[in-house]
Amino acid sequence: MVAGLLVGTLDVVLDSSARVAPYRILHQTQDSQVYWTVACGSSRKEITKHWEWLETNLLQTLSIFDSEEDITTFVKGKIHGIIAEENKNLQPQGDEDPGKFKEAELKMRKQFGMPEGEKLVNYYSCSYWKGRVPRQGWLYLTVNHLCFYSFLLGKEVSLVVQWVDVIRLEKNATLLFPESIRVDTRDRELFFSMFLNIGETFKLMEQLANLAMRQLLDSEGFLEDKALPRPIRPHRNISALKRDLDARAKNECYRATFRLPQDERLDGHTGCTLWTPFNKLHIPGQMFISNNYICFASKEEDACHLIIPLREVTIVEKADSSSVLPSPLSISTKSKMTFLFANLKDRDFLVQRISDFLQKTPSKQPGNSIGGRKSSVVDLPPESLPAPQEVSELPTSPSSPLGSQPSVSAQEVPTASQGLLKVFQKNSPMEDLGAKGAKEKMKEESWNIHFFEYGRGMCMYRTAKTRELVLKGIPESLRGELWLLFSGAWNEMVTHPGYYAELVEKSTGKYSLATEEIERDLHRSMPEHPAFQNELGIAALRRVLTAYAFRNPTIGYCQAMNIVTSVLLLYGSEEEAFWLLVALCERMLPDYYNTRVVGALVDQGIFEELTRDLLPRLSEKMQDLGVISSISLSWFLTLFLSVMPFESAVVIVDCFFYEGIKVILQVALAVLDANMEQLLGCSDEGEAMTVLGRYLDNVVNKQSISPPIPHLHALLTSGDDPPAQVDIFDLLKVSYEKFSSLRADDIEQMRFKQRLKVIQSLEDTAKRSVVRAIPGDIGFSIEELEDLYMVFKAKHLASQYWGSGRPAAVRRDPSLPYLEQYRIDASQFRDLFASLTPWACGSHLPVLAGRMFRLLDQNKDSLINFKEFVTGMSGMYHGDLTEKLKVLYKLHLPPALSPEEAESALEATHYFTEDSSSEASPLASDLDLFLPWEVQEALSQEEQEGCANEDIQEKRGGTGGIPWSPLVHCNPSQTVGEPSATSTCSSLSEKGTSPPDYRHYLRMWAKEKEAQKETIKDLPKMNQEQFIELCKTLYNMFSEDPAEQELYHAIATVASLLLRIGEILASVLTEAALVTFFEKRVDLGLKLKEQKTVERQFSASSDQEQPGLSV
């Protein structure tokens, strides 16, 4: 026994495949002393399965052989053939995973019961800390799960955690857990340590958790990159998925570092040096090669960055090597710049790769020179642009509601082919502006000198000198050009000529929810600026926002986009503003502009964390006042444009396009630091907001040459003691001096940590909103509803990776209320129904589940949402006896009963169109809506002509049924009276009586809205085929019940009573056994617990120690 425990422990720790199986099937003949192993298994169930296969496929054949030797030869050949065929299928082909990795993946699926669709990414040896005892075992990281297995001295530990449930993931080192990884879910904390390479493991876990958060955000499942190039030297134990994720991480870092388009893929990188002519040095760094760009980043962070688009390259040649300049490579561009790289390890291969990419690069692309920026939208001649003094005479457009046309059509309004600031600002000579003009002239000259020394355009050397010039302020004449360069928007605009014009053409005249919101916010976009007080600016803003909404319907339009876009239009053409908006929304501020502003909430969490670390005195006070959550969203979403004077905020935008989000965080920290003493003395949130508002409104730009624009928050500065003015350049200087320790990679790391918290917090909020939206009479407790929601949501998410017919993205519509966002199809509902239904129907269960699905699918889209699901479950669990019987009864009538399940579909659906019985269902009034238009018109005319006739009222269901809706059966032009058996819609007008007061209509509205209690008599009658199906279901439900025989006898009695009284459900109520069966209570909580186990197909107590098997 002890030896067996030791062997089992070593087997897991060493990942040995030599563990002797406890169950084996052996082949031996009478005259032989040799046993041949035919099959082995780790459980009795597994070995029984093998034995059944042998009985079916092998044992019957052995009887035809005469000699024992022939039998042995045949068995050996058969088994060897099966093994050879299996090994052939497992051999890696092309990019398939190596054999050892395949073996680990099969072991993972077998150990944790994972389906074929669950892909293993990598596995690591580590220890799981259970209490204070480390459990050595193996950590398996799959696309959707974290799994751990350990077998130590007879104790077995098995863990499975879904990535979508992780709320915290961090690497830390404490005295108790040395260099460990902590994984938190909502209900437990897990610690893993003793990794061979903890950095690699943690990085992969971060990537997988990020993918899971993306699934929760937009239901995008993981799709393997089929275009990933095959490795030159295949790694022995690295899967294709691991290489895919590594490549994605490198691509994201590459694109973020050099602000490249989202579809750019890194091909490779190598160490080298770059000759920099401005300081005559060879700077060491890394060269990066991709499909369309050659980039360089120095080892020293601010020394030099370089981006060379291949569309600009004219010559790539190998220069002569020397001891000073080994393996040099020269690259020349159309702008007459030459870049000299050296110390390249594999220069010949590199030149070949660049040549291959150059051959695929289009030879001619319009607008390659940024110095002469040109829009694909047709430029207007100068005479067609309005003169500054004529601008005020242009007609203004009121906000157009959905479906209405703007006052000036797109064809009548000139297209903004240059920055609106040039159109609406008087072109005064610099000399007339005095000191400000001289300062602006000096800035322009400084930038011209910089262009001369470092180059101009996309191929410019970007150094610490460039940042220094940006911090001093970009001159207005160069602002649009440099924004395009630093953001990377220029690359996308040049490579997509005519794209914006095409979008404008497609979106013109189209209306949607996004265009309605755009129209509403157009006149709220910098209304104090003259450019947006007339139709030229308003129309340009409308076109840009609408074009982007059509480009990216996932975002569509979000508030604050109008403010940012209006500023972009001041310094660039419409097309340039559009591509700047693309760069802003999709790359520089990811997930900021959507319905849940997730990106802004993530950066708000970073801001709070930085405040705790860098301003500890203020942090606790700000948290108590709740100020950070109030201020940071408006600061971040609008880049301070909505809270600062325009001339000052635009300087922050300059720095933002060069440095990214770190500038916004630095400035926000500097603002809090400057107001620390006043904030510490505040007693409530309103006072703190006033302090910050007055401060920001007095941040001025004394160097601006633009005329001052009144600020919307100027009222905050009114009073006897206005705060002192603060120069924006002084504020920026302080922010860099005090908070320059912020690094881009640190911010990305913090974003990951905050993203887990924010998205899981939003999911919790959504769950609470769903539970609150469920009607109170549904019967389930709050805890049960929350558990049902989590099970339902897990089933929805499982469709992304466990072989559903339609992807989850198709089933989820974020624009719908939370209650209706997650939806499942019939197969997923069948699984949930089988696990949760209180009615056990054996083999008949799939049929009953299909009928219940069709009954709940009210809109016939082959999907049901959570509200429909809970409604169905409530009827089975918390309905009274009559309600449960009605549910069961409806399951055997159309639409629950499909036409294929009955012999006559015509009879089965007869009650939808006509019921000749004397007691028609009052539900027919609702079903009339589905009748042909001519039939509805005839019925309406019939009622108006003789509504007082008792026969018609009885035909509609009598006074006890659901009353006719006057909206359907009354003439809208007539006065509506109170519906009754003897009054008509026109009776009031005929009698000439005065109309009733508003209380009468309120009572009538409440009566119509009140849910009508459906009785047994309201149900349609059942035909013979449907009754037979009902009997089948009842017999299946009663099988294996303790009172099975008594229930069968009761059903027989009910059937005989039916022949006499003709009421199925009424007959059921006469049998005590049937009443007891339907009224017995079922524990939903236990079924929910079992369902969570079934979903992952592994042991219910996954974190519970289990006794090991002795060998």
From TrEMBL:
Domain of life of the source: Eukaryota
InterPro entries given in the database record: EF-hand-dom_pair, EF_hand_dom, GRAM, PH-like_dom_sf, Rab-GAP-TBC_dom, Rab-GAP_TBC_sf, TCB1D9/TCB1D9B_PH-GRAM1, TCB1D9/TCB1D9B_PH-GRAM2
Polar residues: compositionally biased ranges: 394-411, 973-992
UniProt keywords, alphabetically: GTPase activation, Membrane, Phosphoprotein, Repeat, Transmembrane, Transmembrane helix
GO cellular component: membrane
Segments of this protein annotated with the region Disordered: 360-411, 973-993
Domain Rab-GAP TBC: 473-660
GO biological process, one term: system process
Bilayer disposition of the protein: Single-pass membrane protein
GO function term, MF aspect, one: GTPase activator activity
Sequence ranges assigned to domain EF-hand in this UniProt record: 851-879
Compartment(s) of residence: Membrane
Biological role stated in the UniProt entry: May act as a GTPase-activating protein for Rab family protein(s).
Protein name in UniProt: TBC1 domain family member 9B
Species this protein is from: Dipodomys ordii (Ord's kangaroo rat)
